[in-house]
Amino acid sequence: MSDPHDGAGPAPVEPVTPEPPNPLRRTLLHQSWLDVAFVHWALAPESVGGLLPRGLRPDVYEGATYVGLIALRMHRVGWFGLPGVPYFGNFPETNVRLYSVDERGRRGVVFRSFEASRLLPVLIANLGFRLPYMWAEMSVRREGDGVEYATRRRWPRAGGSGGAHARLGLRIGERIAQPSGLEDFLTARWGMHSDPYGRTLYLPNAHPRWRLHRAELLHLDENLITAAGLPSPAAPPVSVLFSPGVPVRFGTPA
User: pLDDT, tens digit, for every residue of 23-54?
Assistant: First the structure.
């Protein structure tokens, strides 16, 4: 894909689409994201610019950018079309993420931290891909229309002091027939930006359209957002959503 501006400035930002805008040429990694909680707060774009890799700027919706606390179950992670790993490929995950746009106009997410309950995937992600994975004691429990997520970091400890944690509970509501512009902006993300070796990369992904439900936040106790270098939320979240999940494929980095 060439830059239509030919170096004259950033390319136009791609539209938000509820389905992948481009097919994946090759599948590098596949997995499923299950019992997904999306909790989001609005932020001033200037408050996160220094937390993004080089060449990226905050993605904004109606003048604001967002930080997301996303809790889920990873299921059957596998490589190159091989069957998903039954034990090490299944684990809870909680991540803190920001929203980004690169110089070619591609929207993505930047992960400030991942908590995961399996040590081997944490080591592989850290050593092989320089992703900020943390080993944590975690659980996801669903009963009826209620879901409880809990995580407490084991390693590496934030600032050497430990105590990074999150506990949240949701009550799942009605399915959303037509997501709003903001709901698509926060969930329909078709790539991840990272800079594992000082060079910003874009890792595309593809999955079916999200099945989103409204959700009520019953309780929340967390400090993962501040542990990720962001200001502590000063107000309730502006968006709380739930999805039963989707199968996901990741392509090769660009």
Answer: 998 999 999 999 999 999 999 999 998 999 99
- Three-state secondary structure readout of the chain: CCCCCCCCCCCCCCCCCCCCCCCCCCCCEEEEEEEEEEEEEEECHHHCHHHCCCCCEECCECCEEEEEEEEEEEEEEEECCCCCCCCCCCEEEEEEEEEEECCCCCEEEEEEEEEECCHHHHHHHHHHHCCCEEEEEEEEEEECCEEEEEEEEEECCHHHCCCCEEEEEEEEEEECCCCCHHHHHHHCCCEEEECCCCCCEEEEEECCCCCCEEEEEEEEEECHHHHCCCCCCCCCCCEEEEEEEEEEEECCCC
Structure tokens at 169: 């509970």
Q: What is the pLDDT of residue 155?
A: 87
Q: Which residue, 142, 47, 45, 149, is CA-closest to 92? A: 149
Let me know how long the chain is: 254
- What end-to-end distance do the CA atoms of the chain give, in Å? 10
pLDDT of residue 82: 62
User: Which among 200, 206, 196, 207 is positioned nearest to 254, based on CA atoms?
Assistant: 200
Each residue of 132-162: pLDDT tens digit? 999 999 999 999 999 999 999 998 865 554 6
Q: Record the pTM.
A: 0.92
